[in-house]
Design goal:
The structure holds 2 protein chains of 2 kinds.
Chain A: H1 21-29, H2 41-45, H3 56-64, H4 68-75, H5 83-87, H6 94-101
Helix pairs in contact in A: 3-4
Chain B: H1 10-34, H2 37-48, H3 50-65, H4 68-73, H5 75-98, H6 115-121, H7 126-129, H8 134-159, H9 174-196, H10 199-215, H11 223-235, H12 247-254, H13 260-264, H14 278-286, H15 290-299, H16 305-309, H17 316-325, E1 351-354, H18 356-360, H19 363-375, E2 380-382, H20 393-397, H21 405-418, E3 422-425, H22 428-436, E4 444-447, H23 448-457, E5 469-472, H24 479-482, H25 486-493, E6 497-499, H26 522-536, E7 543-546, H27 549-556, E8 562-565, H28 566-572
Parallel strand pairs in B: 1-2, 1-3, 3-4, 5-6, 5-7, 7-8
Classes of the chains: A mainly alpha, B mainly alpha.
Bound molecules: iron/sulfur cluster (4 copies).
Chain lengths: 103, 575
C-alpha cells in the first residue's frame, strides 16, 4: 500500500529492474558463489570488519540485489587477508571472488 | 685430408652460424635496451666490480659448461649435460687451437681466399681440410665420443625417463622435436664423416648444423647462448619488472624446459595440475600466450620450490609476481579508514609481538606465546590483541603493491610508537613482508622460532625433555625464503626426538594452504595437503610440528596425528 509518504526509506528492491551484470559475471567464473549459506563466519572474522562495515556476506547480498555502487564502496575496505576464506563453512574461495569483483 | 680450402658443403653451416650470431646480437641489444635506466647502470657496474665479475666467471663455467647444479640433484643427468655442453665446447676450442698448427697448402691460391674466412669454418670441418696432429686427433675423438655418450643418455631419457630418475618430462611440439633430432645426429654424422670421409656425411653434418642453428632461436635450445647473459644480469641484482621484457625476457629464453620443476612442484600431485608448473609457465610466456600465463601466475602458490630446484636458477616466482602486478584493476582499495586507528596502549615493553591475521585464527598460538614470554620474564606487549591491521603481504601477493602501502604505513607507525626494539612474529607470511618491505631501522625482526631458540639458549626458558617423536614441517616463507632451518629443529630437539620427513628444508612440500594462490580450489588444495602430510608421516612421528599458523590450520584438516605449533609444544613442556 502506498500512502505517498513513509517513516523510513523503503528497503524494497524491485527485482525486475535490478542490474545483475557483476553478479552474473562472477557466477560464471566462480560457481561456488552459489553455495553460500549466509552463515556469516566470513563476516565474524573479517579484519577490515573490525574497523568498518565490511562484510563479505552482505557484499554478496548487495550484488545479488544489484546494489553495485554500495558493493563497490564496501569492497574497497577489504585487505585481502584471506581470513574469510579460511573460515568459510562451505569452502568457498572467497579471496578469489573478492579479487575478481575489483577487476 | 683434401688439398683444397673450400667445399660447398660448408655453406649450410656458414649460413646457420651467421644467422644465429646476428639473432643473438640483436636479442642482446633488445634485452639491454629494455632494462630500466637504473637497472642498466647496475648491470654495467656489476661487470667491473671484482666480486660480481668473479661470480660471473665462476657461474658461467660452473653452470653453463659443467652444470654443477644438475650434478647435485641427479648425477646421471649431470653427466648427460656436461658431456654434451663441455664436450662440444672443447671440440670448438680445440678446433680453433688447431688453426695454429696449419701449414700453408702447396699449390693452393691462399691469397685469393682470405684466411679470415677459412678460419670461420676450418675448426668445424678440420679433418676434411687439414691433417690433425696425433695429440689433437686423440683429444678430438675423445670429446666427440664423450658427447655421443651424453646423447645416448638423452635418448634413453626420452624413451624411458624413469631410468634416469625423472617422473614427468615435458611434451614438445614439432620444432622442438626436430631440433632435438638434429642435435642428436650432428655428432654421429661428424664421427662417421671424419672416419670414412664419405662426402654425403660431410653434407649431412653441415646441414644438421644449419638446422640446429637456424631453429635455435625458436626453440628451447636458445638457453645455450642466453644463459650466460642471464647469469650476468642475475649477479647485477636485478628484479624482473615486466613479465616479457628485459631481465624477464632473458630468463624466459634461459629456461631449457628441463622439467625438473614439474616433479618438484606440489601442484603436480594431480597430473592435471602439472601444466601449472613453472616449466609450462615459462613456455607459455615465451610463446606469448597471455591468457594462459596469467592463469598460471594466479594459480601458483608462490612456495618457491621450483626456484629452489631449478638448475638455471630461473626466478619464476618473481616473474609471476610481475605478471600479477601488470593486471589493471577497475576498483582500487581505500584504506583511509585506518588513519583514525590508534592503539591506546602505551607501554615500555622491549619486545613487541604481532600475531597477524592467521594467528588470530589460531588463538592457541597467541596463548602459548603469552605463556612463553611470561615464563621468560620478558617485558612484552601484544600489538594486535583485539584485532589489528593486516601486514600487507596477502595484498602484495595479489600484485596490488600500491594498495598494500596504507596497511604497511599504519603498522610501521604503531611499531615505531611502541618504542620496542624487537618485533616478534609467529607467522612466516608476516615475517617475510616485515623483513623485506618494511622500513624499521633499529628494530630487530624475529620469527618466534628464532626468538624461542634464543630464550632457551640464554637459559631464560627451561623445558622438559620427553620421549615424543616429532617431525618438523618447514614453512615455505621461513625455510626457503630465509633459510631458517636450524633454530626450530634445535628447539624441538631440546624437548623430544626429531624424526626426519621425506622431503626437508629447501625441498619441503608446501602445506597447500598458501595465500599465494588465488585460483586453486579447496579440493585441489586438499590433495596437496594430503601429499604433504604423507611426506611428513614418512618416519611415523607422534606429532607434526610447524611454525606457521596457516600450515597448522591446513594440516589439521588432513593429518592422522596431532598438529601443533612450535610455540604450543614449548609452552606445554615448560618447567
Ligand atoms: S580478505 Fe577481506 S573480506 Fe576477507 S577477512 Fe580479509 S579483509 Fe575481510
Ligand atoms: S563463510 Fe562462506 S558460507 Fe558463510 S556467509 Fe561467508 S561465504 Fe557464505
Ligand atoms: S612456486 Fe611452488 S606452487 Fe608455484 S610453480 Fe613453483 S613449486 Fe609450484
Ligand atoms: S624453470 Fe628451471 S627447473 Fe623449470 S623447466 Fe625451466 S630450467 Fe627447468
Amino acid at each position: 500500500m502506498d500512502f505517498g509518504f513513509c517513516l523510513s526509506p523503503s528497503s524494497h528492491v524491485k527485482m525486475d529492474n535490478v542490474d545483475l551484470t557483476t553478479f552474473n559475471r562472477l557466477k560464471e567464473t566462480n560457481p561456488d558463489i552459489n553455495t553460500c549459506i549466509a552463515c556469516g563466519s566470513c563476516t565474524a572474522t573479517c579484519t577490515a570488519g573490525h574497523f568498518t562495515e565490511m562484510s563479505f556476506r552482505r557484499l554478496l547480498l548487495m550484488l545479488q540485489r544489484g546494489k553495485e555502487d554500495e558493493a563497490k564502496k564496501m569492497i574497497q575496505r577489504c585487505m585481502l587477508c584471506g581470513k574469510c576464506t579460511l573460515v568459510c563453512s562451505r569452502g568457498i574461495n572467497i579471496r578469489k571472488i573478492l579479487l575478481d569483483i575489483t577487476r | 685430408m683434401n688439398s683444397q680450402i673450400f667445399h660447398p658443403f660448408v655453406l649450410p653451416f656458414v649460413l646457420g652460424m651467421a644467422f644465429v650470431l646476428t639473432y643473438c646480437v640483436v636479442g642482446l641489444l633488445r634485452v639491454i635496451g629494455q632494462l630500466s635506466k637504473d637497472d642498466r647502470k647496475k648491470f654495467w657496474r656489476s661487470l667491473v666490480t671484482p666480486k660480481t665479475a668473479w661470480a660471473n666467471i665462476r657461474d658461467i663455467v660452473g653452470d653453463c659448461l659443467f652444470h654443477v647444479k644438475i650434478w647435485k640433484r641427479n648425477p646421471v643427468l649431470g653427466y648427460m649435460h656436461t658431456a654434451i655442453a663441455f664436450g662440444w665446447f672443447m671440440i670448438i676450442v680445440i678446433g680453433h687451437i688447431m688453426l695454429f698448427t696449419l701449414k700453408p697448402l702447396e699449390g693452393v691460391d691462399v691469397e685469393g681466399f682470405p684466411r679470415m674466412f677459412t678460419n670461420f669454418y676450418y675448426p668445424i670441418f678440420f679433418k676434411y681440410f687439414a691433417e690433425e696432429t696425433p695429440v689433437f686427433a686423440f683429444l678430438m675423438d675423445f670429446f666427440l665420443l664423450m658427447i655421443i655418450s651424453g646423447i645416448l643418455i638423452a635418448v634413453v631419457k626420452k624413451i624411458h625417463s624413469k631410468i634416469v630418475g625423472v617422473k614427468r618430462i615435458m611434451h614438445f611440439g614439432f620444432a622442438d622435436n626436430m631440433i632435438r633430432f638434429a642435435l642428436w645426429t650432428i655428432f654421429p654424422f661428424r664421427l662417421i664423416a671424419e672416419k670414412t670421409n664419405i662426402m654425403a656425411f660431410w653434407w649431412l653434418y653441415s646441414i644438421d648444423l644449419f638446422v640446429f642453428m637456424f631453429m635455435l632461436p625458436f626453440t628451447r635450445y636458445m638457453h645455450i647462448p642466453t644463459e650466460a647473459l642471464f647469469i650476468l644480469l642475475r649477479h647485477a641484482g636485478l628484479k624482473p619488472r615486466e613479465p616479457r621484457k628485459g631481465y624477464a625476457l632473458a630468463q624466459i629464453y634461459s629456461c631449457p624446459s628441463c622439467g625438473l620443476c614439474i616433479d618438484a612442484c606440489p601442484m603436480s600431485v594431480n597430473d592435471k595440475n602439472s601444466g601449472n608448473t613453472s616449466a609450462y609457465f615459462m613456455k607459455r610466456l615465451r610463446n606469448g600466450d597471455k591468457e594462459e600465463s596469467q592463469r598460471i601466475a594466479e594459480t601458483c602458490m608462490q612456495c618457491g620450490k621450483c626456484v629452489a630446484v631449478c638448475p638455471v636458477s630461473i626466478e619464476s616466482c618473481d616473474i609471476k609476481m610481475s605478471q600479477r602486478e601488470a593486471v589493471p584493476y577497475a576498483i582500487n582499495s581505500d584504506h583511509s579508514y585506518l588513519d583514525a586507528y590508534e592503539s591506546n596502549e602505551t607501554s615500555n615493553a622491549s619486545v613487541l609481538y604481532f600475531a597477524g591475521c592467521m594467528t588470530q585464527l589460531t588463538p592457541k598460538i597467541m596463548r602459548a606465546m603469552k605463556q612463553i614470554m611470561e615464563a621468560a620474564g620478558e617485558k612484552y606487549e601484544f600489538m594486535d590483541k583485539d584485532g589489528g591491521v593486516c601486514c600487507g603481504r596477502p595484498m602484495l601477493l595479489s600484485g596490488k603493491t600500491v594498495e598494500a602501502q596504507a596497511m604497511m604505513a599504519k603498522n610501521t607507525e604503531l611499531i615505531k610508537k611502541s618504542g620496542a626494539k624487537r618485533l616478534v612474529l609467529s607467522c612466516p607470511i608476516c615475517y617475510k613482508v616485515f623483513k623485506e618491505e618494511y622500513q624499521l631501522e633499529g628494530i630487530e625482526i624475529l620469527h618466534h622460532t628464532q626468538y624461542i631458540d634464543e630464550l632457551i639458549k640464554q637459559g631464560k626458558l627451561k623445558v622438559d625433555k620427553n620421549g615424543t617423536n616429532y617431525v618438523y614441517h618447514d614453512p615455505c616463507e621461513l625455510g626457503r625464503a630465509f633459510g631458517v632451518y636450524d633454530e626450530p629443529r634445535e628447539v624441538i630437539e631440546s624437548i623430544g626426538n626429531l624424526r626426519k620427513a621425506k622431503s626437508e628444508k629447501e625441498l619441503s612440500i608446501c602445506c597447500g594452504g598458501s595465500l599465494g594462490s588465488f585460483k586453486l580450489t579447496q579440493q585441489e588444495r586438499d590433495e596437496i595437503t594430503a601429499n604433504s602430510v604423507n611426506d611428513l608421516m614418512y618416519n611415523n612421528p607422534d606429532e607434526i610440528v610447524t611454525a606457521c599458523p596457516l600450515c597448522l590450520k591446513t594440516f589439521a584438516r588432513k593429518a592422522p596425528v596431532a598438529v601443533k605449533d612450535i610455540a604450543e609444544v614449548v609452552a606445554t613442556n615448560l618447567i
